[in-house]
Each structure stands twice: as C-alpha cells, then as structure tokens.
Automatic annotation (TrEMBL):
Cofactor: record remark: Binds 1 FMN per subunit.
Residue sites binding FMN per the record: R60, I61, V62, L63, M64, K65, Y75, T76, K82, Q104, Q139, S140, W184, R194
Function: Catalyzes the oxidation of either pyridoxine 5'-phosphate (PNP) or pyridoxamine 5'-phosphate (PMP) into pyridoxal 5'-phosphate (PLP).
Name of the featured protein: Pyridoxine/pyridoxamine 5'-phosphate oxidase
Record key words, sorted: Flavoprotein, FMN, Oxidoreductase, Pyridoxine biosynthesis
One annotated GO biological process: pyridoxine biosynthetic process
Assembly and binders: Homodimer.
Gene that this sequence comes from: pdxH
Catalytic activity: pyridoxine 5'-phosphate + O2 = pyridoxal 5'-phosphate + H2O2; pyridoxamine 5'-phosphate + O2 + H2O = pyridoxal 5'-phosphate + H2O2 + NH4(+)
Residue span(s) of domain Pyridoxine 5'-phosphate oxidase dimerisation C-terminal: 171-212
Family stated for the protein in its record: Belongs to the pyridoxamine 5'-phosphate oxidase family.
PROSITE patterns: PYRIDOX_OXIDASE
Organism: Parahaliea maris
Pathway: Cofactor metabolism; pyridoxal 5'-phosphate salvage; pyridoxal 5'-phosphate from pyridoxine 5'-phosphate: step 1/1; Cofactor metabolism; pyridoxal 5'-phosphate salvage; pyridoxal 5'-phosphate from pyridoxamine 5'-phosphate: step 1/1
Length: 212
C-alpha cells in the first residue's frame, strides 16, 4: 500500500454559521471543553510556527497554559530558538490539531513577552522537577550527551536543596494576540467546513466561510 492510499472520511459532524459564537475566543473555549471532555490526550498541545532570521519557518509543539480575550499563553526559555525568532519577528501561527474530533483551529497573530511578575506566578505553580529542568537546560543549545544534562539537573537540585526555587531570569511567558482565527471541521467527501474570524480596527470580528 502506498502512502497515497491512506485516507478516511470525516464524519464527526458539520459546522454552520449559526453554531458559531461571535467571539473566536469563546468559540475556542467551547471547542476546547468538548476536546477535554472527549479525554483526548494533550488537549492543550499546539503547534507554534515562527520565522527565523534567515526567513525559514519552523514549527514545534508547545503546551498552551492560558487563554482569554487577551490571547493564548505559553512559556519557554528566553534564549531558545523560538524566543529568538519571536524577538526578531513577532508574527506567529498556532495550530491545535484535534484530529480525533475531525477538528483543527488555526491562530495567526503577534507574540508579545509577558511581564516577569506574570511569568513568576505561573513558574511557582510548576512541579519542582520542571522548575529544576528550567534552570538546568539551555534550551536549543547543543549537548554532547544526555548524561551532562542530567548532571546539570542534579547540580541545580543540590543548589536549591528543599527551598523554594525562584524563576530564572532567562525563562518567561509569551502571549499570542490573535488577528485571525480559523475553525475547521472535517466533512464527508472532503467538503470541509471552514470559518475564519478576522479582527477589525474596532476589535470586533468579521466571520466568513471559506471553501474547503
């Protein structure tokens, strides 16, 4: 069997304009709740696409840690490739691939760095081992073997003992402020339902249906 033979019909359900909330964030939260209720693994996993200094797009999966009308929140090492990309070009895209439900949500917008106070509030809620890993890893930098990384984690463990672990100054959050949001619902015979929200100058949203 060749790869071209892998296909299936998308029959989970349709999407019409009267099913949509006028606000894409409320619509997203509605779909996210349904995704969580379906017990899909990693419902908040999203693909983050950035553009590097050479103009090359790059993608990776990160976990969304918050959503509101202000935008979509995630955290990372501020020296990572993604952070450097966003510093040079804040235009990014997010993709939530909820394939089991025949759905996906695409967000296009601008990433802005969150304040240290906002980031610290979240950092202090992280599991202790995750806090140590944030200190130990120089994300995106080469390492000759895993044992060196594990040794660095142990070094941090010894350094902080049983005390509170502060947030590193090289770690923090980003908020993606959406300008466009597309909701995609798979349909039979590839007649998928697509609706795109576009932010207007008065911060209202225009909704239009797109051909599949």
């Amino acid at each position: 069997m060749g790869y071209e033979d892998f296909r299936r019909e998308y029959l989970a359900g349709g999407l019409t304009r009267d099913m949509l909330d006028d606000c894409p964030i409320r619509q997203f939260e509605h779909w996210l709740k349904q995704t969580v209720d379906s017990e899909l693994e990693d419902p908040t996993a999203m693909v983050l696409a950035t553009i590097d200094e050479g103009g090359l797009p790059w993608q990776r999966i990160v976990l969304m840690k918050g959503v509101s009308t202000a935008g979509f929140v995630f955290y990372t090492n501020l020296g990572s490739n993604k952070a450097r990309d966003m510093s040079a070009n804040p235009s990014v895209s997010l993709l939530f691939p909820w394939n089991v439900l025949d759905r996906q949500v695409i967000v296009g917008g601008r990433a802005e760095k969150m304040s240290a106070a906002e980031s610290a509030r979240y950092f202090l809620t992280r599991p202790r081992e995750s806090q140590l890993a944030a200190w130990a890893s120089r994300q995106s930098r080469p390492v000759s073997k895993r044992a060196l990384l594990e040794a660095q984690v142990q070094k941090m463990r010894d350094k902080f003992g049983r005390g509170e672990i502060p947030m590193p100054d090289f770690w923090g959050g980003y908020r993606v402020i959406p300008e466009r949001v597309e909701f995609w619902q798979g349909g039979a015979h590839r007649l998928h339902d697509r609706f795109r929200y576009t932010r207007q100058t008065d911060d209202s949203w225009q909704i239009e249906q797109l051909q599949p």
